[in-house]
């Protein structure tokens, strides 16, 4: 229960779903966590549940560099320098290329891709000063195989940025890895505009079910902990066998 004892983490997009699952597990394993989201109501509720001794919620637009500077400062002032960054914030979009507008496309690029760059850029100096750290970028199985335009390309970009950052930051003791979930039972799936399609698709997953958020969190925990001390620039896939087909 102390795999992250003494560590400080930042988790984005964590007011609900997979991000909230990561926060809960990190706290259970001894970490102090600053978590962020635009969903202020959900964020405050989770913070009250877990307690101010363990967590701090910060409302953040992950596409804004100034917000990132504020989050890093808040983390340092509250718990100390971050050892862990989980770039979890993201959106999905199921529009076809014919229906997707330029604004739609730029929105998903900014949230899914640019935010990851901004997070790495903001956190790396503090991690360097502290002597190292672990950055975990949540991509998708669609960062390995094709899917919807906008979503797929941004998740491939996260995978590529992970490798580039890993090569540059590894001499500083900072590891960078990407996690590639398949179909996870989160609000983004169960409340999105493609619910019926996704539920039907889940029947064809080799393991015949969607994953629970906690199953992804266990992988994120491994990468956040010192147990993964020799892993960097790598993809960690949690897809029930989909990309093996």
Automatic annotation (TrEMBL):
Keywords: Oxidoreductase. Gene3D superfamilies: NAD(P)-binding Rossmann-like Domain (3.40.50.720). It is an enzyme of class 1 (oxidoreductase). It comes from the Bacteria. GO terms for molecular function: androstan-3-alpha,17-beta-diol dehydrogenase (NAD+) activity. Pfam families: adh_short_C2 (PF13561). InterPro entries: NAD(P)-bd_dom_sf, SDR_fam. Its EC number is 1.1.1.53. Belongs to the short-chain dehydrogenases/reductases (SDR) family. This is 3alpha(Or 20beta)-hydroxysteroid dehydrogenase. It comes from Bhargavaea ullalensis. The lineage of its organism: Bacteria, Bacillati, Bacillota, Bacilli, Bacillales.
């Amino acid at each position: 229960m102390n795999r992250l004892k003494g560590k400080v983490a930042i988790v984005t997009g964590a007011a609900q779903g997979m991000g909230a699952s990561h926060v809960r597990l990190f706290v259970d394993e001894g970490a102090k966590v600053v978590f962020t989201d635009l969903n202020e109501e959900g964020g405050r509720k989770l913070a009250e549940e877990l307690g101010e001794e363990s967590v701090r919620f910060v409302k953040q637009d992950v596409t804004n560099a100034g917000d990132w500077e504020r989050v890093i400062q808040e983390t340092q002032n509250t718990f100390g320098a971050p050892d862990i960054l989980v770039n979890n914030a993201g959106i999905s979009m199921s529009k076809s290329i014919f229906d997707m507008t330029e604004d739609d496309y730029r929105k998903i690029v900014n949230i899914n891709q640019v935010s990851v760059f901004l997070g790495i850029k903001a956190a790396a100096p503090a991690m360097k000063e502290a002597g190292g750290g672990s950055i975990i970028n949540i991509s998708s199985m669609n960062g390995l195989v094709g899917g919807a335009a906008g979503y797929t390309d941004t998740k491939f970009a996260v995978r590529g940025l992970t490798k580039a950052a890993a090569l540059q930051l590894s001499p500083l003791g900072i590891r960078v890895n990407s996690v590639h979930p398949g179909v996870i039972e989160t609000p983004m799936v169960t409340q999105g505009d493609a619910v019926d399609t996704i539920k039907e698709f889940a029947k064809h997953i080799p393991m015949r079910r969607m994953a629970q958020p906690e199953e992804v969190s266990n992988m994120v925990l491994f990468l956040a902990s010192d147990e993964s001390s020799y892993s960097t620039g790598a993809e960690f896939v949690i897809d029930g066998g989909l990309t093996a087909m």
